[in-house]
Amino acid sequence: MAKPLSEYNRKRDFEITAEPAGSSPAAKRKASALSFVIQKHDARNLHYDFRLELDGVLLSWAVPKGPSLDPTQKRLAVHVEDHPLSYGSFEGSIPAGQYGAGDVIVWDRGVWQPHDDPRKAYAAGKLKFTLVGEKLSGDWALVRTRLKGSGDKEQWLLIKEKDQQARPASDYDIVQAQPNSVLSDASVGKARAASKPKKTAKPKNAHTALPEQFSPQLATLVDRAPAGDWLYEIKFDGYRMLARIRDGDVRLFTRNGNDWTERLPRQVKALEALKLKDSWLDGEVVSLNADGLPDFQALQNAFDIGRSLDIVYYLFDAPFLDGQDQRKAPVQERRAALKSALSGSRSKLLRFSEAFAANQRDIFESACDLALEGVIGKRAGSAYVSSRSADWIKLKCRLRQEFVIVGYTRPQGSRSGFGALLLAVNEDAGLVYAGRVGTGFDLAALKAIYAKLTPLERKTSPLEKPLTSAQARGVHWVEPTLVAEVQFAEWTREGVVRQAAFVGLRTDKPVSQIIHELPRAAKTLKQPKAKETHKGVNITHPERVIDQQSGTQKQQLAQFYADISGWILPFLHGRPVSLLRAPEGIDGEQFFQKHSERMAIPHIKQLDPALDPGHARLLEIDNADALMGAVQMGTVELHTWGATTDKIETPDLFVLDLDPDPALPWKAMLEAAQLTLSVLDELGLQAFVKTSGGKGLHLIVPLARRDGWDTVKAFAKAIAQFMTEQLPERFTATSGPKNRVGKIFIDYLRNARGASTVAAYSVRARPGLPVSVPVSRDELKGLRSAQQWTVANLHERLQGLKEDPWAGYANRQKISKKMWDKLGAEPPQ
């Protein structure tokens, strides 16, 4: 039987190690499959810790060589102390001097299914079980031997049973083929050491031809620190700079490929002194003030007067280093190699950008207290990609971005030069007004900027839409060639900045790349039919926190829905909608509203009472103001019927909601989706996939509006039962947590009259505010979770889309007699 965790706690000092402390095992927990985890542990000797959940703890064995898929290879498994369940997600470095010092990653995880009573089998020393993991699957056994190990540790054997997943060791070694973490893609042991620079023999095939040009990885702006293992650095207030070292020649380039080598001669000499072979180094050049903090204005002044001695080059990554292509190596390994390469530098102009080990919230708050711009987070284990990536994030103390200067106003009183700068950003139609900035200038800046503005004056506005007469009064228009960096409190609903302060002019970014970093309206591929009223909705209590985890406020949630209104409205238009309301935030009371009530929702459409006899009127959201009205009344989620109001009795779609046991690995969900899609393909039905924003995936099958509710629901049920009969170990068609232990429930119940499913692009009332997002079939295999997109990062996905992931969606499919026959079912009479 499972032993108390006293031995585990006795061996560790939790003031030093980041490992979780063990508490008393919970007496009872919700019905769920038993979890397993295998952690790769680079301690004195590299080994694999095999752990099985039982009775509230993780039974643990150390497997020196790791698991083998070959049944003839019986791997030694040394029984060690039980670990707490919370240890199952631990990744990190156990400090020197602590028990088990070294790096730990989660090599695999999932659920295990004992073949017999697990307690009796464990006591008898012969456990047989099935694994459903990201890497390991099939049948296995743990057998206690009579061999004596060191001390009182029992010697067991881990054995792969003969089944379809078994493979000869001569054909495949899974620990060699898949060495990295299933959580972070981090590596330990030989894989980690291979990426470090060596003075002697290098790994084979490590050398890659150095590219002539190179684009940097860019960070995604977020409003909260996400969960997971992240490295955090200072967000430097300077110019991004890439260094190319080839055949001893050093060249410096801005993020847009402009050669600034001649502007930074001293930094070039310092890099030459490193005597590195072919390399691309990534960093930021900054000027430091008297307190040692970055000062963007001082950096500009240093460039203006050609004083490069005042400029420090902070280096934080090395995609290519000393002849090796490191782009696929985990970020912590690239940085370790870079730090080692810089260790011999004596120049004060080259510095390594250190990462912080403290809690990210503490780091962020400290950065803001020091008046820094913010922090950069990098996902542990992530590779280097030459594009904007969700693996790099930026948290800003205040909103801050670049704007195009399109005009200026006359100065008032004793002020010289100009009063304020008029700002704009690029949108599809052209330059769009984004407000003005009149503070943050000293006398020298006023004079210098005014001297740049006067030669650029023009008679007409460069904006796509004219300003009102009040806004344009006293404005001098200029050619849109200058770029200003501005910090501000927030964007208003009208798309202008509030409480703006000037930071400096930018010469490293072209005007064409200046856009709204948090887009007010994502490019719509499918416009709503409803006519926009633009009456406006007053958001009361805008500062109310909707989600404690992300800190998202009511006004921010309203802005998010306003930004994506063009994407979500097509899925709301013409359908009854049910609202999940959380007036005090998602941690408070939540309730559904299907009908109109005494508390009117601004601009929402109340439907014909005949659609739902005996009840108050059903609701519909068919314009952006109604969407804002719903948020004003505390709505977080939007759920829609599977039929439109003009033909309410004949659904135009059915939904298969794949709802997993939470303990199952994500790989099991992806496999389940592919299997279900294969069955739909065999039936001749085209399906469309979206993340639920919760735990699973939704498969949407559009239909011609012919059959009634009972027929459509019965057909969806027939598919669920067919899948369950074919693969009973994977699927269940019966609801309830007890019925889906270790399985995926195919929920067909959402297809009844009056039932609803969360709409595409709706936020979910869950910590972090994830969003239900459509994906293409090709994207399915690359999904990381059902909560991959949130209110903080969805705009990045929408900006990057080249085509609608649901292109080709059309309600023309009909349920045929042949389909019923293939499922072995009969339609209702």
Can you put this structure into words, describing what you see?
- This protein has five domains: 6-193, no CATH class; 218-396, D-amino Acid Aminotransferase, Chain A, domain 1 (2-Layer Sandwich); 399-513, OB fold (Dihydrolipoamide Acetyltransferase, E2P), CATH 2.40.50; 520-640 and 761-770 and 786-805, DNA primase, PRIM domain (Alpha-Beta Complex), CATH 3.90.920.10; 653-754 and 806-823, DNA primase, PRIM domain (Alpha-Beta Complex).
- Helices cover 18% and strands 29% of the residues.
- The strands form nine sheets. It has an eight-stranded antiparallel barrel. Strands 20, 21, 22, 23, 24, 25 and 28 form a seven-stranded antiparallel sheet that branches.
- Mean pLDDT is 87; it is low at 191-206 and 519-535.
- Its EC number is 6.5.1.1.
Helices and strands in order:
Layout: H1 6-10, E1 34-42, E2 46-54, E3 57-63, E4 75-84, E5 92-94, E6 102-114, H2 118-124, E7 126-133, E8 137-148, E9 154-160, H3 174-177, H4 190-194, E10 218-221, E11 230-234, E12 239-246, E13 249-254, H5 265-272, E14 279-287, H6 296-305, E15 311-321, E16 324-325, H7 331-342, E17 350-352, H8 360-369, E18 374-379, E19 388-396, E20 399-409, E21 421-427, E22 430-437, H9 443-453, E23 457-458, H10 469-472, E24 475-478, E25 483-488, E26 490-491, E27 497-498, E28 501-506, E29 545-547, E30 552-553, H11 554-563, H12 565-572, E31 577-581, E32 591-593, E33 605-606, E34 619-620, H13 624-632, E35 635-640, E36 653-660, H14 666-683, E37 688-691, E38 697-702, H15 709-726, E39 731-732, E40 744-747, E41 757-758, E42 774-775, H16 794-800, H17 817-823
Parallel strand pairs: 10-19, 15-17, 39-40
Antiparallel strand pairs: 1-2, 1-6, 2-3, 3-4, 4-9, 5-6, 6-7, 7-8, 8-9, 11-18, 12-13, 12-14, 14-15, 15-16, 18-19, 20-21, 20-24, 20-25, 21-22, 23-24, 25-28, 26-27, 29-30, 31-32, 31-35, 33-34, 35-41, 36-38, 36-40, 37-38, 37-42
Helix pairs in contact: 11-13
